[in-house]
Amino acid sequence: MNTLILENEDFLDENTVKIYGRRAKHILEIKKLSIGSAINTGLINGNLGIATVKSIGSTHIILEVSLNDKPPAPLSLSLIIALPRPKVLKKILQTATSLGIKKIYLINSWKVEKSYWQTNQLSEKNIREQLLLGLEQSCETVAPEVIIRKQFKPFLEDEIGSIVKDSIALIAHPCEKIFDSERVKKNIVLAIGPEGGYTEYEFKKFIEMGFQQISLGKRIQRVETILPLLVGKLCY
Description:
With 236 residues, this protein is of the alpha/beta class. It is 31% helix and 28% strand. The chain has two domains: 4-69, CATH 2.40.240.20; 77-235, SPOUT methyltransferase, trefoil knot domain (Alpha/beta knot, 3-Layer(aba) Sandwich).
């Protein structure tokens, strides 16, 4: 936890918060803070600042907070990604959040196992939990919007046009040609498929909708590996 993320309901008054549970336990047992210690903090979807421990109870901590700093600028990249297996989904949500991505589309693909759509990791509660962990990691307060689309073809034919408008649309797909470009200086929509890429039909549908192929070579990378690699190449 590099940043303590606060909720509106944590506030007792304008400058005082009371926290319980996982966050309080982490501050005491992992960060080992005591009365008078300070920690970076931020209000969800609000400002960043500093929280100072004022008192420690048996089940809670009282902190005094000062929130005067704006959160980092959002990354000018939206992510479209074929739903990965549940354990990887948790990593992807945390990583995408920590990178500053503000819109994530989880979509279907022929290679996505049907059982993945039944996981409780797709519940609003569990998705939010992973986003908060990403915010805590990256000293950020603004969580991305996560949009779930279970039908591949309707998503591309009915929605993708408005999503990629005024953006450069890229699809990650293994090939011999290495993507070679300086940082893209406009909004990006990046599509990443399952390991090994989308099927030939799916890939061609993306190309028909105006996507350009991007690759880091013929090696097949894990989804959680390719995401930060490509974002680093395109945006940093």
